[in-house]
Amino acid sequence: MAEQQNEYQGKATMEKITSLAKRRGFVFQSSEIYGGQAGAWDYGPLGIELKNRIAQTWWKEMTQLHDDIVGLDAAILMHPRVWEASGHVENFTDPLVDCKKCKARFRADQIDPEKLAKKECPECGGELTDTRKFNLMFKTNIGAVEDSSSVIYLRPETAQGIYVNYKNIIQSNRMKIPFGIAQIGKAFRNEIVTKNFIFRTCEFEQMEMQFFVKPGTDEEWFNTWRDRRWKYYEKLGVKMDHLRWHRHGPDELAHYAKDAYDIEYLFPMGWKELEGVHNRSNYDLSRHMQFSGKDLQYIDQDNGNERYIPFIIETSAGLTRSLLMLLCDAYDEEYVGTGDPATSDKNSDDWRTVLRFHPNLAPITVAVLPLMKKDGLAELAQDIRAELKEDFATDYDQSGAIGRRYRRQDEAGTPFCVTIDYQSKEDNTVTLRFRDSMEQVRVHRSELVQRIRAEIKNYKRTK
Description:
Largest sheet: 7 strands, mixed
Radius of gyration: 26 Å
Shape: globular
Number of strands: 23
CATH architecture of the largest domain: 2-Layer Sandwich
Structural class: alpha+beta
Strand content: 25-35%
Distance between the termini: 19 Å
CATH superfamily of the largest domain: Bira Bifunctional Protein, Domain 2
Mean pLDDT: 92
Strand order of the largest sheet: 3-9-10-16-13-12-11
CATH class of the largest domain: Alpha Beta
Low-confidence stretches: 1-6
Number of helices: 14
Helix content: 25-40%
């Protein structure tokens, strides 16, 4: 593992990321015209494309590249007993305190222990209330009558939908242990303290895979999945010195966990959890057997019909949190002028803001830019875009100076720009520009798709 940093040294700040996200159409505040809804965000044209590509990449990694993992899309609304069995009704709480002076609310476990003991607010010095537990599940009612019998919850995690379907999948798809079930879906948590943009929100999406193994083999599989998940981020092209492992101590372990590690990323606000890899033992299936009365033992027909309750190795990553990580990781400010960068105005054309996404993740793969709107260049450019659309996500921009258009595409993270000029009309060649290096080469129109595919396949991030 690369040497880990202790302090953030990147160029991104949360203020810059938030501003760029809105300016370029990645993320908007939910219900902004009404003052916004805390803990909720809307994903704009570039944001939904980036989110979909992250999900597609994860899905391919988990299912297409593994013969022993299948997919599932379970319902958000589940029987209330599911959450009793899982322990969420009893244990899914945050310790909260309020300041009597400024009315701010805090998680008690994130306050300096000395200040908490003195009941001193970390911001204004006012007196804090006693610590109380707050359940994070959203509760609502189903049916015509609102009473205790109609209570239902919005799921706080996607994993339980996998556990209650585990026997269905064994029977319908003839799965044999070891095997996994992958799922991407919405989850909801009534977070009282939401902050750091889209890092912690009330509505989010999870990418989870639950891998069912024979007891006694769980530690080996746990280490295997830790290794696989680390290599996944290498494939994404992220800065590996901004990643590290954090092992949960005895006081951190969830009630279901035998062992747990987090992959942490060095965000601008410090080291924060990006993904968890957990050995959940056989807790979940045992509890669902107890509460449902159904036999969830696995029958190993290859070993004399041996019966056991599988252990579960879980990998759990936040889709929306991964999007924030990639925005922070890709963000760069680069001097492209000819003078002294120390004396250059950061708002001048001597500087560019660029998102260095891996081309497989970039919301736009290729931007098509006619040098001029007239003399048939725009029409030719549209024809070329139509050809590229079959293979890549494209954008078309004919407004403003070509340099300004390049800057707009750099800021959106577009790895390739194709410029159509007067020479294109004569010999059917175009200028292919590379985002990272800003290098430009002439390519024949007939070879353009093949060249871009090769560049994507061989892409290696250099900055």
